[in-house]
Write a structure and sequence with these properties.
Chain A has 135 residues and is an alpha+beta fold. The first copy, chain A, has helices at 49-62, 99-106, 109-118, and strands at residues 13-18, 35-43, 70-76, 90-96, 122-132. In chain A, helix 1 (49-62) runs antiparallel to helix 3 (109-118). Chains A and B meet through strand 1, strand 2, helix 1, strand 3 and strand 5 of A and strand 1, strand 2, helix 1, strand 3 and strand 5 of B.
Chain lengths: 135, 135
């Protein structure tokens, strides 16, 4: 089970992570704090469903990178609110143990292959790496 | 337990969420797909630890908003990589059930009170709302 340090104020904390990939341990649990790696992609052809599906397909393969604790592939929810940026094409949210894991992930062969296969699809990418504060 | 639909390709999926807040059910589980609401704040006084702590304190109270399934408060991990934006001050990552839950959260009294108490602290805020794709 996760330690109390995962809990943020009165918020719910992640109890654990179920493994689905063959390369994973059966029931890993998240560390006390998770490192959040969130990438937003803007496609060269944002209106082309094939380009979007190609990127999503690449991300599904990338999800097998061994340092990834949990991943989430998403599409923008449209909004009228000015503070909401819904101009990106695809979101890629990853939980990792810590910054060292993120650095390993960057040079993981699965990640390098993803970049090689998919980078021609996007014209812009923005990454936010975030370290969880102490609860 | 979470359904298979939470699983993304070969990636690990969230097994469940443990409740910590008094206002929460004891062991909520995440829906098949989660709605990700990720907010990045740029403080007016980014070098002022008191301003940062005030915002983090406000977010800890905001975490009690009833529609929040899970939340994560973070600080930027510095990076030399050009695609990484580490210029923000504080990250606020929230999981909600769906877009309707996000819309309720926006007008929740706890959220409105957070904005009232903390909005003077930031000069810029960017929000990315993301709907999970079908696994």
């Amino acid at each position: 089970m996760v330690s109390r340090r995962t809990m943020i104020g009165g918020a719910a904390g992640l109890a654990g992570v179920a493994a689905a990939g063959a390369a994973r341990a059966e029931t890993p649990t998240l560390p006390g704090r998770v490192f959040v790696h969130h990438v937003y992609f803007w496609l060269k052809a944002p209106e082309d469903p094939q380009a979007r599906e190609a990127l999503i397909g690449g991300l599904r393969k990338l999800a097998a990178a061994p340092d990834i604790l949990w991943s989430h592939i998403g599409l923008p929810a449209e909004s009228e609110r000015g503070v909401v940026d819904d101009s990106y094409s695809v979101s890629w949210l990853v939980f990792l143990a810590d910054k060292a894991a993120e650095e390993r992930y960057q040079v993981d062969p699965i990640h390098l292959k993803f970049v090689e296969e998919c980078s021609a699809l996007w014209e812009r990418v923005v990454v936010y790496d975030t370290q969880q504060v102490e609860g």
